[in-house]
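Hello,

Our lab assistant flagged a job as stuck in the queue for most of the afternoon. It eventually completed. Since we weren't sure the result was trustworthy after the delay, we are filing this so someone can double-check. Below is the sequence as submitted and the structure that was eventually returned. Let us know if re-running is recommended.
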Amino acid sequence: MLQKLRTYLQEAWKFRKEYPNNCKVLELMFFFPDWSRSLQTGASPLNDQRPWITFAAIRFLRNNLRKDMRVYEYGAGGSTLFFAKRVKEVISVEHDPVWRDQVMEALTNGGHENWRIDLIEPTPDARIIDKDPSDPDAYVSSALEFKGHSFRNYASSIEGYPDGYFDVVVIDGRARPSCFKHALSKVKDNGYIIWDNTDRSYYFPAMQLAPGNLYFRDFPGPSPYVNFFTRTSLWHYQKNNANPN
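-- returned structure --
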């Protein structure tokens, strides 16, 4: 426990310097017990039915989700079960067939029926082997095992739905800059786009694609299941251009 506390305080100090307006001391103290438990053997997003995003972002979702909402998520997992318990419908796109089957089994065992997971695997494409993963038009992942594979069908899968269809879009899968580009038009008025791990510098260019009626909010800090702090960001769509904060 002492080592966990030391690690947590080191990460807290680092992030407090980088995000002084977001990392509040009392909030960091509040999240420590959950963070510590998440590092125990057997804890996982799927077992805990929890999104793998920062604790502050999870709290925001708990406070703002409603039973009439529709959610689209890039990357299935514990978040899928989390949403299935709280919203009208959750649709996920997943690139890994083995993981897709595990999540589907958990959803079925939980008695949930308001979900769908579409399996869309990357396709080999030698023409994109040197593409930049920061480029929303590249449709590539930064992971080495997917070098030379296109995630175009995965990222553009949301285009099968009308503009303004979803209340929440979560980007926590592959080729995230490309997913963000396609998600922008699919969020309804007063809806949200949530993008995890936005402390990764190669995401910064694509984050600038957000138009002026998407208001930005940051949730940096501790995240379950990892011993480092990260950053989850949120864009709140306001059709009438009135800042909600």
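-- support follow-up --
The delay was a queue issue, not a problem with the job. The result is valid. Residues 2-237 form a domain with the Rossmann fold fold (CATH 3.40.50.150). Residues 2-18 form the longest helix (17 residues).
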